[in-house]
Amino acid sequence: MFNRDRWNEIIEALTANWFRTLLTAFGVFWGIFILVILLAAGKGLENGVKRGFGDIATNTMFMWTQVASKPYKGLPKGRRYNFKIGDVSSIREKVPGLRYISPRNQLGGFGGTNNVIRGLNAGAFNVYGDYPEIINQDPITITSGRFINYGDIDNNRKVAVIGEGVKKELFKFGEEPIGEYIKIQGVSFMVIGTYMKKSNNGDREQGQKEIFVPFTSFSQAFNRADNVGWMAITAEDDNSITNLKKSIIDVVKTNHTIHPEDNRAVGNFDLYEEFSKINGLFIALRGVAYFVGTLVLLSGIIGISNIMLIVVKERTKEIGIRRALGASPWSVRGQILLESIFLTIISGMTGIAVSTGVIFLVNKLLEGMPASDETMFANPSVDLTVVFVALLILISSGLLAGLIPAQVAIRTKPIDALRAD
């Protein structure tokens, strides 16, 4: 129940030497402020780094052929080979737990010769021969028309989905590209869709300068037969592609008569493994933030405990009078603990409020800056759970800080307290 006299006494005790109280409260304020800011900064860095992965499915590996480094079954080392379309069905049959297997062929590239023409306009673009599943592994946003489908695959349709950057270079402003034809190395493809995407290497502009065509028509038009340039393989959510990687590579080695211990013949990049390393790094950073913040907060709590000991010493005669008049030990103890908790919570909540304001201003500043995929810091924030935990820490810390002074107060005998100067 609210007791006005008790709260007036608390305010009077804490403001009797307001400068000392302010310096003491600053320790808790600074501790909770540092804790929240460190956690928010870590989250902002984590968001920025993970944004560099784009929307690509992280439980994915990419696999390509290299040179065999060991002789095997009469075949020499140093030989080259190609993945075949039959490898896809073989991997799917022998390695359970895979969600998507997307074979891909590629033509041209940024900085190469002009390989795409429309009328008098020409450009050098990455052209990919793909299956429809690739849009689930490396998502793009279709801005008009559609993406390739299995009807296009089965019928070898010469159709293409172009990026907004390709559209800008090959078509006039305001011109509708759907239904129009472009020539890729002299072969005509009809545009059926346009898209936007964020390039995974952070180059937003280059991400719009790509063209997707059906894998089958790509192979037919550019004489790739049943060869596959490389594959994107994604595991089911309850499986790690890292754990399945060896089985996948073993299937390919068997199909192409490669020595089982030849670790150089099949190139691969495990995106999930890299993503897991980054996750581990940020878990460690959060641990460091909690550790540093807690130590700083603990120093503030020690300061409050010390100041409460001084306050108890200064009020020894007052405590003796209260005990002589019949005040119970719990009444004295409760008064000291309440003062300690009050000071801790007020200073801690001020720290939370100020740190939240700083985070808000930083987010506003980041929103006003030009968007860039290369920014390694984005949307710093702190989970509400952290705020609630901080409140519990403050309450516990207040009790801890006042416990020793409270025990000192109740152990003082009334007669000794009344004799104190």
Automatic annotation (TrEMBL):
Family to which the UniProt record says this protein belongs: Belongs to the ABC-4 integral membrane protein family.
Provenance organism: Aquimarina amphilecti
TM ranges: 21-41, 288-312, 341-362, 382-404
Domain ABC3 transporter permease C-terminal: 291-413
Domain MacB-like periplasmic core: 21-249
Single GO MF descriptor: transmembrane transporter activity
Tree of life domain: Bacteria
Compartmental location: Cell membrane
Entry GO terms, CC: plasma membrane
Keywords: Cell membrane, Membrane, Transmembrane, Transmembrane helix
InterPro entries in the cross-refs: ABC3_permease_C (IPR003838), MacB_PCD (IPR025857), Macrolide_Exporter_MacB (IPR050250)
Listed Pfam families: FtsX (PF02687), MacB_PCD (PF12704)
Protein name (Swiss-Prot/TrEMBL): Putative ABC transport system permease protein
Membrane-protein topology: Multi-pass membrane protein
